[in-house]
Design goal:
Blueprint (H helix, E strand, L loop, with lengths): L6 H4 L5 E2 L6 E6 L9 E6 L7 E3 L2 H4 L7 H17 L9 H15 L2 E7 L1 H4 L8 E7 L5 E7 L2 E8 L1 H14 L3 H8 L1 E5 L2 H15 L6 H21 L4 H22 L10 H8 L1 H10 L5 H15 L26
Parallel strand pairs: 6-8
Antiparallel strand pairs: 1-2, 2-3, 3-4, 5-6, 5-9, 7-8
Helix pairs in contact: 6-8, 7-8, 9-10, 10-11, 10-13, 11-12, 12-13
Length: 336
């Protein structure tokens, strides 16, 4: 894919002289998914031999005192970016942050799709909210990048479509459809391939289906929570503080199991208690009291009640996993 930028922008790529009189300007195109859409501007005072590579002045805001030619080129490139991408209506500083992220992605990768998600995109950000950016490309490479753009943190996840498909499968098996939720609730900034539409449609469909839980998974999660709670009880006499810490972990595992038991997806940790109120209001009241303070005896009494209500057991119980055949990797396979 190679989009041509307007003639008045592309003419003279490789070096032109500015009529502004105060700098010599060279523009060097970079190969990206949008051809020469994104470029690095090089301006240097005529009186010196030094030059400094500075990124797109409008997209990155780091270019100081650009000449007239640079300004005109920057405006044209910004217009071309808007033609190729769609952006949600965001307040500052999020609007510029998202544009900077997209510009960065276009320069670093060859995307066929860019999806922005998270509370910022949905319009209800918290002070620590970040931008979740999913980049779909056709290279056999996955990568995660954590960067600040215009002071806003961004998590960038770069994946080919077949890797995203494996995320969908794993998330359904774990009852935590993180990948599908990000794609289905996100804003499509850039889409140049039908594979992006296919992934979006699948993400929406997966959110309407129950999790793909096996009976063995349910038993294992129940056992994990029950034995964790048993460990906390064992520690109580010797080390009450450590026992309380262990009990807190056990309670969160019990709450997650409550959703699995109901054949529901497990919410994100920050939504867990709020969602529990709709699933099991009485248990939710007890869990909130556990984390609201009180003596360790009161907290353990409440936690015991929660374990009895959800797990119906407080520790070890008998169960068997399925037998798995595991070959010795050191033994050579016979030749066919």
């Amino acid at each position: 894919m190679n989009y041509a930028i307007p003639h008045h922008v592309s003419a003279g790529l490789g070096g032109i002289e500015s009529d502004a009189g105060d700098c010599a300007v060279s523009v060097f195109g970079m190969e990206t998914a949008a051809g020469q859409l994104f470029s690095i501007f090089r301006c240097a005072p005529r009186s010196t031999s030094q030059s400094t590579d500075l990124r797109h002045p409008i997209l990155f805001g780091t270019f100081r005192n650009p000449c007239l030619v640079c300004r005109r080129r920057a405006v044209a490139l910004e217009r071309e970016l808007n033609n190729r991408c769609s952006f949600p209506d965001l307040p500052p500083p999020y609007d510029k942050a998202l544009r900077d992220v997209v510009s960065f992605v276009m320069e670093e990768f060859k995307p066929v799709g860019i999806i922005a998600s998270g509370t910022i995109i949905r319009g209800n950000p918290d002070p620590a909210s970040d931008l979740d950016i999913w980049v779909i490309h056709l290279e056999p490479v996955r990568q995660r990048l954590q960067k600040f753009f215009n002071g806003i943190p961004a998590e960038i996840f770069v994946n080919p479509p077949w890797v995203i498909e494996t995320y969908f499968t794993q998330d359904q098996a774990n009852a935590r459809p993180i990948s599908a939720h990000i794609m289905a609730t996100g804003f499509v900034v850039y889409n140049s391939d039908s594979v992006v539409d296919e992934l979006l449609q699948k993400a929406v469909r997966l959110l309407t289906e129950p999790p793909a839980l096996t009976e063995e998974t349910l038993i294992a999660e129940r056992y994990r929570a029950a034995t964790r709670f048993e460990d906390a009880l064992d520690m109580l006499a010797k080390d009450p503080i450590a026992a309380n810490a262990c009990m807190s972990v056990a309670v969160m595992e019990i709450v997650r199991y409550a959703f699995l038991k109901a054949n529901r997806f497990v919410p994100r940790d920050k939504d867990l208690l709020a969602e529990l109120e709709s699933l099991d209001p009485e248990t939710a009241v007890r869990v909130r009291k556990i984390f609201s303070g009180g003596s360790w005896k009161e907290r353990f009494a409440l936690a015991t009640d929660v374990a009895d209500r959800v797990l119906e057991v407080r520790g070890f119980f008998e169960w068997n996993s399925k037998a798995e055949r595991k070959e010795d990797p050191s033994r050579k396979k016979p030749r066919a």
